[in-house]
Amino acid sequence: MNTSDEPPPAETQRMAALTLWARQNLSRLIYFLLGASNRIRLPTPSVLPIAGAVVGLYSGLAAGIFSNLIGVMSGITFSAAELAATLKPQRLRTLMESLASARWHLEYAMVGVPLALGALLLARVIDPGGPRDEVKRRLRLLALLTLGALSLYYPLVGLAAVNAVFGHAHNLASAIPHLPWWLMLLAPTVGGLAVGRLLRDRPETHGHGLPEVVRAVKSGANVVPADRGLLKLIASAITIGSGGSAGREGPIVYGGAAFASSVGRVLGFSRKELSILLACGAGAGISASFNAPIAGAVFAMEIILREFELRVFSPIILASVAGTLVSRGVLDEAPLLNRVNYELVSGSEVFAYAALGIGCGLISFAFVKLLHGVEHFFHGGMGGKLSPWLGRKPLPVRAALGGLCTGVLVFLSPTVWGSGNDYINLAAAGQLPFFFLVTACVLKLVATALTIGSGGSGGTFFPAALIGAMAGGAFGTLVHYFFPHATGPSGAYAIVGMGGAVAALTRGPLTGMMMLYELSGSHELILPLMVTCTIASAVCHFLTERTAPKVQSDEDLLAATHVRALMTEVPAVPAGTPLRALTDQLLTSEAGTLPVLDTEGNLYGTVQVEQLREVWRDESMYPLLVASDMARKLPALAPDSDLAHALQVMDQEDVDALPVAPVLGLSPGGLITRAAVRRFLFAQHARAHSTGNYPVTPSEAAH
């Protein structure tokens, strides 16, 4: 009789069999998961939303860095003479309280770190070889960028807490009246001198950011250098923090797009996907600057891409959400506008808002013209003695003179100093008198033109919003005075005027509507916003097009130029060309692309050097493949077709080169490349600039 505690032999055998079965099935499951991971290809459309979210994180960080740089400069400007007072024990206690109450959002690290580490682990598990190498590289880069964003976020939150105590960017309306007169003149002058010295050797960084991004996307280049983005952020922080009249959004849009351009090119995105990623960076910058994610997404699609296709929605929306979440930690979570409940008093009030739209369109047009005129004047392009004299002076001197003029205008209206956003809430609440509103509208317009036109750095988006708020408030004061029972208070017109000016300057009515609808939080203002923004945008667009110099646009130039003028004569490769010989020809070709014939001798398509990436390491594939196996079927262009049609086909096929069919007895065949078209347009622009007949000035607000 077995009296021990050991289980009977039959039960032991069953447990051993169950354990063996579990181990075998677990091994099969692990091998299955490893095999599935190795089969992952992650096509670019599936990676693009993730890349958009990562770009959004860094756009939010850029907004935080930029805001804190402005806070540092503003703190230096206002507190240079009070340094001893800022170090008193009570101020240090306030600093500790600010750090304790900062929005650290530790859940970001709790979510982001495991996801990034999981992506790194997955990249390590995937076997190398073929397209899997690209997957591993993309996963690794996106994971490292996520960890980098988290490592920047928390120090930036601490810096924001410090700036909340020692900086003065949050209460300019109360601090400016106590500035000594000499500091009002000296600070913008020294700031302009510093910015001019910083940008003296980098003329390509001049302007306010948005037009450069729009042109990069429109031209198809999609290249915004990252070093220029950082330089523009620093220069704009100096300009705004020292009292120059400029906006924050332009440099952040440029910085976000510059980062997106670098990431997209490293990830190997196509031209179209790269343009979407640039829009992600720009839209996330707007979302972070204004704490308005919907407006940022609409801005990216309406202003940057000019399209509302389904494939662009997910990356842009994720980028805007990520940028806003980050900015709410490193900036103020409160909305830009204090929530005020206004409503449409009567149906006849729509006519008043229509008149406001006309006024906003006229003011925005005057703003653009004055900005271009001041720029032309400081560059020596006007007659007389002063303009040529200024044109001969170096950029630091010109920017310092512009800053000095801006400092003089601060004596007449404090809204000139910096971005002036504190006064928007006062106008929205109806707390500013009529004369102050009119004076602020005119002087802010002139001061911004002087600051940026003389060589300062900053955006025009936010100054236009302030100008529109002042103009709308003044218009609302008059309308309410004459029709008190049929119209709302002046604050409603200030909010709607702000949207109208933004819509007119950018020629994006949806952006103006959604931004002010989101910032105000008032459902009742959507109808006035729709009326004012649409009319203002149409008026400014009509006046700009009517007064623009009659020069040949890029579209006209492309439509008037035949493909044969730019095509490269390249003999087509026979279909049976071995892979080894094909590789040698591709590597020595100028464009890295060759036209390929089919088995019947007809033009079939092209083969690109990038297509060798999957097979060039595998020597066993060389005897098995020929040119027809590697070629991609593409439509062939006729030599007498125009360049506009060629670019349209390239966009449809998402390629950078197309074959050109030969015409027997008339012309040989060859290739037309996007790079050749780009060089052609650049040469035409350079020729137009040399004669002074250029269609777009350096600080054009829209395209």
Automatic annotation (TrEMBL):
Keyword Transmembrane helix: yes
Top-rank taxon, per record: Bacteria
Annotated membrane topology: Multi-pass membrane protein
Protein name as catalogued: Voltage-gated chloride channel
UniProt xrefs under Gene3D superfamilies: CBS-domain, Clc chloride channel
Family annotation (Pfam families): Voltage_CLC (PF00654)
Annotated TM spans: 47-70, 108-127, 139-161, 181-199, 276-300, 312-331, 351-374, 395-417, 423-447, 459-483, 489-505, 525-544
Gene Ontology molecular function: any one: chloride channel activity
Gene Ontology cellular component annotations, sorted alphabetically: chloride channel complex
CBS domain residues: 566-624, 630-687
Principal cellular location given in the protein's record: membrane
Compartment(s): Membrane
Keyword tags: CBS domain, Chloride, Chloride channel, Ion channel, Ion transport, Membrane, Transmembrane, Transmembrane helix, Transport
SUPFAM superfamilies: CBS-domain pair, Clc chloride channel
Database matches in InterPro entries: CBS_dom (IPR000644), CBS_dom_sf (IPR046342), Cl-channel_core (IPR014743), ClC (IPR001807), ClC-type_chloride_channel (IPR050368)
